[in-house]
Design a protein that fits this description.
- By secondary structure, the chain is mainly alpha-helical.
- A hairpin with a 7-residue loop joins strand 1 and strand 2.
- The radius of gyration is 19 Å and the shape is elongated.
- The chain starts with a helix and ends in a 13-residue tail after the last helix.
């Protein structure tokens, strides 16, 4: 958590003061850095708060995640943006972010993360409408030795007029 993130997600101001007050009161929130910009709270407390939110305002959850995804994307944290975009069901944002960071994520040895994002996009039906994500996934699958997955992902773009379809 950070003040600016909370302000953006909640569409309010003054979150930093609230966080500092909670830290000083020792209410399950601790600072993560010396300047006390970032904070965290206990995961069990997180589960409790999320359950309460789903119970009281279930329609608000998607919007909160959309705003968090937008904030993280705008603030140079694309993986956290993907996490929140997935929670919001925002397929276009996940695909766009995947296209931007999928290759570097794979090249740093995090193929499981790449394939988890691909699986989510495929489950949501998002790969057929995002040929760059499909081709990137096909390349990652080929490099990983999964010829069947690679062929399946390439098939998604074979009939489209996207420039990457010419590579098939």
């Amino acid at each position: 958590l950070s003040g600016p993130l909370c302000d953006a997600v909640l569409e309010t101001t003054g979150s930093e003061r609230v966080l500092q007050s909670l830290v000083q009161s020792n209410l399950l929130i601790v600072p993560l850095d010396r300047v006390r910009e970032w904070h965290r709270y206990h995961h069990m407390f997180q589960d409790l708060l999320q359950a309460e939110l789903r119970l009281r305002e279930p329609r608000a959850v998607e919007g909160l995640h959309r705003r968090a995804a937008k904030w993280f994307e705008s603030n140079g944290q694309p993986e956290l943006a993907i996490h929140h975009a997935q929670a919001a069901g925002d397929v276009p944002r996940v695909a766009r972010l995947f296209e931007r960071i999928g290759r570097i994520t794979y090249s740093t040895g995090r193929s499981d993360t790449v394939f988890a994002w691909l699986d989510w996009l495929e489950e949501q039906g998002g790969l057929a409408s995002h040929p760059a994500a499909s081709s990137l996934g096909a390349l990652a699958a080929a490099l990983d030795g999964d010829a069947l997955r690679s062929a399946r992902l390439l098939d998604l773009i074979a009939d489209q007029s996207h420039p990457l379809a010419r590579l098939v």
